[in-house]
Amino acid sequence: MDRDTDVLVVGAGPTGLALGIDLARRGVAALVVERAEALFPGSRGKGIQPRTMEVFDDLGVLDAIRAAGGTYPVGMIWQDGRRAGEHRMFDAAEPSEDAPYTEPWMVPQWRTQRILRARLEELGGEVAFGREVVGLAQDQGGVRAEFASGEVLTARYAVAADGGRSTVRRLLGIGMTGETVDPNPTLVADVRISGLDRDNWHVFPPGEGGGFLAICPLAGTEDFQLVAQFPDGTAPDLSLEGIRKVVATRSHLAPECLTELRWASDFRPRAALADRFRSGRLFLAGDAAHVHSPAGGQGLNTSVQDAYNLGWKLGAVLRGGADAALLDSYEEERRPIAADVLGLSTRVHRGETRRGEATRQLGLGYRQSSTRETRTGPGPLRAGDRAPDGTVAGVRLFDAFRGPHWTLLALGGAQAPDPGGRIRVVQGPAPRTYGPGLYLVRPDGYVGWAADTAAGLPDYLARFGRC
C-alpha cells in the first residue's frame, strides 16, 4: 500500500468500481480501496435504468449485466390471502433506434458489483480491501491518505465514493443539506421464501398487522428482496425470527415459509445533497455526494453517472494534457443533476409522480455547462444533450462511441475536417434525432459541440488536450 498512484478511489461500490474501470481503460493509474473485507453483500440498489445501461455498454459490462438479471415483474396486490389485482411498477415504453434500452433492468447490487470488479481486474485495476481511510491532507502537488493500519498513500487526486456516511466527506468538512423523506423505519432483506411465485412482485398493503410489505423475486437468483415499513416508528428486528414474524403478521404466509435470511438492513428514507462536490484535489461521487430515497431506482444510477462524468475528465487532465480547470465542470454539471434527481425520487416515494420517462434518465443533460458550445442550431440536438443511438452509413452510433475517445459526426452533407488525435469520424445521412450538421460527442456520450460548419472546432478541441 505504501506507493503512489494517480487517483485514489475510496469505496468499492458501483460508483468507485465504475470510476476505476473508466480510469483503467484510459491508462490512468488508480487504486480502489474499500474499508470492508469484501464487496457489499446485499441486493439494495437493484434497478439499472436505461441511461446506465448505455453507460455499461460503453464500459464493456452490458452483456454480463443483462445475463445476470431480468425485467421487473408485474406487481401482484394481495388482500386477505387472495390476489386482488395487478400493479404496473413502470410506465411502458417501446425501444427505438435512438433509445434501444427503455425498461429498467433488475440486477441485485451484489451481482452488479461483482461484474464491475471483474471488468476492473480485466483492465489491470485492483481493489484493496480492509483499507479504512482515517486521515487526509492535500497540497498543490497531491493528496496524502492515511489508513487505520498506519499505511500511507499519495495520489494526485482522490475521489470519495464511500457512501452516504462518507468518512472522506466528514474529513473534508463538507456538509449535506437535506430532509427526511419518510420518518418511518424501513427493513430491507434478501431472503429465501416458499409459497410465492417468481412471476410477480408481491405487495401486501398495510392492515391490522402493521405497515406495508413487499416481496420481490430477484432476477437471476433464487432470492427475494423483502421490504417492510414500520409506521409505529419501532426499529425492525433484523434476525431471521424477527423477519419471519413480520411476514406471518402481514401476509397469508406461515413463518416457516421464510427458509433463509441472507442479508438484512434498515434505514429511514432521506434525501440529502452535499454542499460541494469538490474540495481542491478531492471529489465526492455517488452517495457520498447525494443520498436518495430508494423509490424510483435513482440512487445507484445517478452515482454511476457521476463516475462516468468524472472519469474522462481526470483522464484528459492526467493523460491528455488538458488544463486542470476542466475538473471544475464536474461539480458544475453533476450537482444540478443530482439535485433534480433527488427531487424526482422524493416525489416518486410520496406517490406524487409515476416511474416513467424521467426515471429512465435518458433526458438528463448539460445544456448549461461551460464545456459545451452550440453554433447556429444545426438540428434538434444541442450541445449538452445526450447523443442518441442510430445508424449512419451502416455504422451503429453506440458502436462508434464505445471506448475512451471522442467522436465527430458529419451528418447530412456537412463536411468533416480532419480533427487529428484519437477522434473517430462518422459521416453520412442525418438521423431524424440529429438533423444535418457537425456533432462532436464527448467520451461520456454527450454532445460537446454542435454547428453547421467546422469553424471554431480546433479552438474548442484545444480545451481538452490530446483528445
UniProtKB/TrEMBL annotation:
<keyword id="KW-0560">Oxidoreductase</keyword>
<protein>
    <submittedName>
        <fullName>Pentachlorophenol monooxygenase</fullName>
    </submittedName>
</protein>
<dbReference type="Pfam" id="PF21274">
    <property type="entry name" value="Rng_hyd_C"/>
</dbReference>
<feature type="region of interest" description="Disordered">
    <location>
        <begin position="352"/>
        <end position="388"/>
    </location>
</feature>
<dbReference type="Pfam" id="PF01494">
    <property type="entry name" value="FAD_binding_3"/>
</dbReference>
<dbReference type="InterPro" id="IPR002938">
    <property type="entry name" value="FAD-bd"/>
</dbReference>
<dbReference type="InterPro" id="IPR050641">
    <property type="entry name" value="RIFMO-like"/>
</dbReference>
<dbReference type="GO" id="GO:0016709">
    <property type="term" value="F:oxidoreductase activity, acting on paired donors, with incorporation or reduction of molecular oxygen, NAD(P)H as one donor, and incorporation of one atom of oxygen"/>
</dbReference>
<keyword id="KW-0285">Flavoprotein</keyword>
<dbReference type="InterPro" id="IPR036188">
    <property type="entry name" value="FAD/NAD-bd_sf"/>
</dbReference>
<feature type="domain" description="FAD-binding">
    <location>
        <begin position="4"/>
        <end position="342"/>
    </location>
</feature>
<dbReference type="GO" id="GO:0071949">
    <property type="term" value="F:FAD binding"/>
</dbReference>
<keyword id="KW-0274">FAD</keyword>
<keyword id="KW-0503">Monooxygenase</keyword>
